[in-house]
Design brief:
- With 140 residues, the protein is of the alpha+beta class.
- It has one domain: Nucleoside Triphosphate Pyrophosphohydrolase.
- The protein has helices at 40-52, 111-117, 121-136, and strands spanning 2-13, 16-22, 27-28, 31-33, 57-71, 77-89, 103-110.
- Strand 2 and strand 3 (27-28) form a beta hairpin.
- It is globular.
- Bound molecules: adenosine-5'-triphosphate (ATP).
């Protein structure tokens, strides 16, 4: 059994959040692997910057999601994955997709539309949670 821990960000600018489009058309939130001994908040900020060029400011922890997937040439090995999500804010809408990671577009999209576009149901839930947190923190 293989375990993976990643961290990512719901990066807010006004009423919009940052989404990335993969070469296959899927819209996803920026995230990536937490390195050994790395703080998860630090990993989330680092991954957002690596995948989108955005230097976001951490606001608060939103929660985690868990999923499993199969990998390996014969697709028999299971990976049990946890992704920790952080609410973040950015100072402007500049962003650039990291092509080498398979991202063809990076875009700030209105919360409601982002919810509809997001490929995975658990990422939709995280977007909803971020929206609720933003409403509580009206000064962002
Ligand atoms: P990371 O961005 O954390 O480095 P990765 O790009 O190596 O990860 P994932 O994005 O976790 O890998 O994708 C691995 C598999 O899990 C793919 O088959 C993908 O479709 C699936 N997957 C990705 N995100 C989710 C999710 N939120 N819920 C369910 N399955 C997902």
């Amino acid at each position: 059994m293989k375990q993976e821990i990643s961290a990512g960000g719901i990066v807010v600018f006004g009423n919009a959040i940052l989404l990335l489009r993969k070469y296959n058309g899927d819209w996803v939130l920026p995230k990536g692997r937490v390195e050994e001994n790395e703080d998860i908040g630090h990993a989330a900020v680092r991954e957002v910057q690596e995948e989108s060029g955005v230097k976001a400011e951490l606001i608060k922890y939103i929660g985690d999601i868990k999923y499993e997937y199969v990998y390996g040439w014969n697709r028999t090995e299971m990976v049990y994955k946890t992704v920790h999500w952080f609410l973040m804010k950015s100072r402007n809408m500049e962003c650039t997709p990291l092509k080498r990671e398979g991202f063809v577009e990076a875009k700030y999209i209105h919360m409601k539309r982002a919810y509809d576009l997001a490929k995975y149901d658990d990422e939709k839930k995280i977007i909803r949670k971020a929206e609720i947190e933003m409403e509580k923190t009206l000064d962002i």
